[in-house]
Amino acid sequence: MFAEVFGVFSTPSQAESAVNRIKSAGIPASDILVVPVEPERDMALSIKRGVLWGGILGALMGVAIILYSASPAFNHWGGIVSIPITGAFGWALYGWILGGTGLLAGSRKTTKAETVLSFQLENPDELGKVETVLKEAGASGVRTLGPIAA
């Protein structure tokens, strides 16, 4: 039989302190897993920014091509408006792809924990003791799973 205990900490140093307290309390934990949580990225915002700035860049490049060419025959062509429009559309697609990676959103502060700590206990009778130690170490949430037959 074994049991799992999970603790959620706001800083990695709190999680490290909890591990040291568990070890100093003499509780044998066969597996200790520390999982840092990455900051969230707002993917929808990143895609919107990519499409918007890609479209603006493409339209400006299309206008620049028209102004740079200075050809009377070219500038009197009726479809000349299609150059900035297609440029804007093409670059908006590039922006969509780039925005889909999340690069344009930046990271934002989350209210979620930065570190999750997991202990696997071989003796399920120690669950209460481990829960108490984790709460004393500053865990914002402690959950248990067990006892489970191996």
Task: Give the structure's gist in a few sentences.
It is built from five helices and four strands.
Layout of helices and strands:
Elements: E1 2-9, H1 12-24, E2 29-36, H2 43-69, H3 72-75, H4 82-99, E3 115-121, H5 127-136, E4 141-148
Antiparallel strand pairs: 1-3, 1-4, 2-3
Helix pairs in contact: 2-4
Number of separate structural domains: 2
Q: Tell me the number of helical segments per DSSP (H or I, 4 or more residues long).
A: 5
CATH topology of the largest domain: VC0802-like
Q: Can you tell me the overall shape? A: rod-shaped
Kindly state the number of beta strands: 4
Please give the oligomerization state of what you see.
single chain
Order of helices and strands: EHEHHHEHE
Lateral arrangement of strands in the main beta sheet? 2-3-1-4
The major sheet is characterized as:
4 strands, antiparallel
What integer value in Å does the Rg equal? 28 Å
Spans of at least 5 consecutive residues whose pLDDT stays below 50 are none
Task: Give a description of the structure.
This protein has two domains: 2-37 and 112-148, VC0802-like (2-Layer Sandwich), CATH 3.30.2130.10; 43-99. The protein is rod-shaped, with a radius of gyration of 28 Å. It starts with a strand and ends with a strand. Helices cover 48% and strands 21% of the residues. The protein has helices at residues 12-24, 43-69, 72-75, 82-99, 127-136, and strands at 2-9, 29-36, 115-121, 141-148. It is built from five helices and four strands. Helix 2 runs antiparallel to helix 4 (82-99). By secondary structure, it is an alpha+beta fold. It has a four-stranded antiparallel sheet with strand order 2-3-1-4, covered by helices on one side.
